[in-house]
Specification:
Helix content: 10-25%
Mean pLDDT: 87
Order of helices and strands: EEHE
Number of strands: 3
Distance between the termini: 19 Å
Shape: globular
Oligomer: single chain
Strand content: 15-25%
Strand order of the largest sheet: 2-1-3
Structural class: alpha+beta
Radius of gyration: 12 Å
């Protein structure tokens, strides 16, 4: 997960623990116990970890959508 105050890598990387691969997917999620319904959080995923991270969020009912990562900052239009 990318933190706003932490130094950011030049190329965004996968959010999976220990993974340093380039991000190619954005997993958009929301924890309804903590966030308002319109709030969206993002994790980045490489091809290898997309399914694992999606399942982790999906089992909890958090996953909203999976989008291709087009570069830049997640959530930019």
């Amino acid at each position: 997960m990318l933190l706003p105050d932490a130094p950011q890598p030049e190329t965004p990387i996968c959010s999976a623990k220990g993974c340093r691969a380039d991000a190619v997917w954005v997993l958009v999620w929301n924890n309804p116990k903590l966030h308002t319904p319109d709030r969206r959080k993002t994790w980045l995923a490489c091809e290898e970890h997309r399914e694992h991270l999606s399942q982790f969020l999906g089992v909890r009912g958090f996953l909203k959508e999976v989008l291709p990562f087009a570069g830049g900052t997640p959530g930019e239009s």
